[in-house]
């Protein structure tokens, strides 16, 4: 062993310490951090110190403690030593004994005199095993931690090549893609996409993210439009199950949130019935995000304390919805808007109730049409309003500045209509 050589090349190595005895000399916070990592790795940890800090005491069910000063003889019959006594002379004596017995020793007090080092570590569970990245930075722990955090963000962003290269069990992950902008997709959603072998995508999903996939990833387009479903739901369920049973990681990329009028529940049940592991990654629901893009909060102090979200594809229960005191949000309801508005008025909703129809929220071509229940159908027809759109009914629809579109990501100023 050679230690203390500034600038010398280091040989990186991961150790399997499962069941192997490791000596931790010291009872303070540094020793506690080292011991906690070793316990988590399955080591047989022996702590030698006159007293223990609270964190080390919490670990007592999982390690052995000898309440005394550490001695050089303690390094006998151990595989690895960590010194963190706070006494440089004691640490040096233990390290020298370890060197004589050819036992690797990590010194917390003097990195350059150490024979081994503990790196800054990033760990991520990828479903079929853990990815571990270790970072050292020339003895500068602050720089190592900074690099670790940067790597952690990179792994979470979905930009890292995380696809599995060896066979293993398949699984399905339903990922809510949010309202359309790629940067509104969650970090976990990006990570699952980076791991995917197959992506089954909806028309309203953030399709720009597909450009970041590996070329080998199979993309299955099952895009639906209102009243036109080229791929029936039963066929989508079959596609998900078939690929997963073939050992592939499948991502079902949907717009909004999978469980908010997205038929995600049906897909989960189909996977479970086939014995396929399934996970749901929530997304930013369009019911709230698209109105926000137009400067409309779905709840607002003094105007609305609740919000009701319904599908606009089918006829609504106008009698029940007319009694809703809060905000009413209809998804994909442009086709049925004339009938819905008339039915709400007929059921007792005031004809002067503000309405806003937001097309292409958070996408190019975003546009808002504002009116009331009395005239919104005519205004929408005159302006050629089309799906995808979110319809907001209630006092909050009159909050946004008239004819003002909010640039995605820009501050929103609210001003009541005059």
Notes on the protein architecture:
Residues 171-376 form the Tetrapyrrole methylase domain. This is Uroporphyrinogen-III C-methyltransferase. Pathway: Porphyrin-containing compound metabolism; siroheme biosynthesis; sirohydrochlorin from precorrin-2: step 1/1. Helices cover 26% and strands 20% of the residues. By secondary structure, it is an alpha/beta fold. The protein has 4 domains: 21-117, Rossmann fold, CATH 3.40.50; 122-157, no CATH class; 171-284, 3-Layer(aba) Sandwich (Cobalt-precorrin-4 Transmethylase, domain 1), CATH 3.40.1010.10; 288-398, 2-Layer Sandwich (Methyltransferase, Cobalt-precorrin-4 Transmethylase, Domain 2), CATH 3.30.950. The strands form 4 sheets. Strands 3-2-1-4-5 form a 5-stranded parallel sheet, sandwiched between helices. Helix 3 links the parallel strand 4 and strand 5. It starts with 20 loop residues before the first strand and ends in a 25-residue tail after the last strand. Helix 6 (233-245) packs across helix 7.
């Amino acid at each position: 062993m050679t230690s203390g050589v500034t600038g010398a090349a280091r040989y990186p190595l991961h150790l399997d310490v499962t069941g192997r005895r490791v000596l931790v000399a010291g009872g303070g916070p540094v020793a506690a951090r080292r011991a906690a990592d070793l316990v988590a790795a399955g080591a047989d940890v022996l702590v030698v110190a006159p007293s223990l800090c609270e964190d080390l005491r919490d670990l007592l069910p999982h390690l052995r403690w000898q309440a005394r000063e550490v001695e050089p003889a303690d390094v006998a019959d151990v595989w690895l030593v960590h010194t963190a006594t706070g006494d440089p002379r004691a640490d040096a004596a233990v390290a020298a004994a370890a060197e004589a017995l050819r036992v690797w020793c990590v010194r917390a007090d003097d990195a350059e005199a150490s024979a081994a080092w503990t790196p800054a570590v990033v760990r991520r569970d990828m479903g079929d095993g853990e990815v571990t990245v270790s970072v050292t930075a020339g003895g500068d722990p602050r720089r190592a931690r900074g690099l670790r955090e940067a790597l952690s963000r990179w792994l979470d962003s979905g930009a890292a090549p995380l696809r599995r290269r060896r066979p293993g069990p398949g699984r399905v992950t339903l990922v809510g893609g949010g309202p359309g902008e790629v940067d509104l997709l969650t970090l976990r959603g990006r990570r699952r996409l980076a791991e995917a072998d197959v992506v089954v995508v909806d028309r309203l999903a953030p399709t720009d993210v597909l450009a970041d996939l590996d070329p080998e990833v199979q993309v299955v387009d099952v895009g639906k439009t209102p009243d036109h479903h080229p791929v029936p739901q039963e066929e989508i369920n079959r596609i998900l199950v078939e690929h997963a049973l073939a050992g592939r990681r499948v991502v079902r990329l949907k717009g909004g949130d999978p469980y908010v009028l997205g038929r995600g529940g049906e897909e989960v049940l189909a996977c479970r019935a086939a014995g396929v592991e399934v996970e749901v990654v929530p997304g930013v629901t369009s019911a709230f995000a698209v109105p926000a893009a137009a400067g409309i909060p779905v709840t607002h102090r003094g105007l609305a304390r609740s919000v009701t979200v319904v599908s606009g594809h089918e006829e609504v229960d106008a009698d029940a919805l007319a009694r809703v005191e809060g905000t009413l949000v209809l998804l994909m309801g442009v086709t049925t808007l004339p009938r819905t508005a008339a039915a709400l008025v007929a059921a007792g909703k005031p004809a002067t109730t503000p309405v806003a129809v937001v097309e292409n929220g958070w996408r190019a071509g975003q546009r808002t049409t504002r009116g009331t229940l009395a005239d919104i159908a005519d205004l929408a027809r005159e302006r050629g309003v089309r799906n995808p759109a979110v319809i907001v009914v209630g006092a909050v629809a009159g909050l946004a500045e008239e004819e003002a579109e909010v640039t995605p990501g820009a501050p929103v100023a609210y001003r009541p209509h005059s």
